Task: inverse folding
């Protein structure tokens, strides 16, 4: 089935655009038969079609993976929605807000042995006595 020209009620368009501007990102399942969208009280089909329109105008970037659409606002999209929703210039989407609490740096892999327990694996170490099971004692 092709849905080329879809008329979306204004209240639904406002709900989708408001959510997108507030969060800066939006996800939608590629399931046009399912009823409402998971986060917005709007049919999922209308959400996807509104986002398709925004992608074609360069207002949103789209990624697709494992039957899910992932949309993120571009700078042009932020400006467009700011005008459309009559939002003040100092309001920004959540993706552009600075975090109030400091984030620890990401740790990739193990640091100084990580959770490997200092080299004692199964059956090794003190008091393991014979076969399997025991593990290191203390």
Result:
């Amino acid at each position: 089935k092709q849905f080329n020209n879809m008329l979306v009620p204004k209240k639904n368009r406002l709900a989708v655009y408001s959510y997108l501007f507030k969060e800066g990102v939006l996800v939608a399942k590629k399931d046009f038969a399912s009823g409402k969208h998971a986060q917005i009280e709007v049919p999922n089909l209308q959400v996807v079609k509104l986002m398709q329109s925004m992608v074609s105008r360069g207002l949103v970037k789209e990624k697709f993976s494992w039957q899910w659409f992932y949309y993120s606002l571009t700078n042009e999209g932020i400006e467009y929605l700011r005008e459309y929703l009559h939002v003040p210039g100092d309001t920004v989407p959540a993706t552009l807000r600075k975090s109030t609490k400091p984030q620890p740096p990401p740790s990739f892999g193990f640091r100084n042995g990580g959770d490997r327990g200092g080299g004692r694996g199964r059956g090794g170490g003190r008091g393991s006595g014979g076969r399997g099971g025991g593990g290191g004692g203390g």
Observations:
- DSSP finds three helices and three strands in the chain.
- The mean pLDDT is 77.
- The CA atoms of residues 126 and 136 lie 5 Å apart.
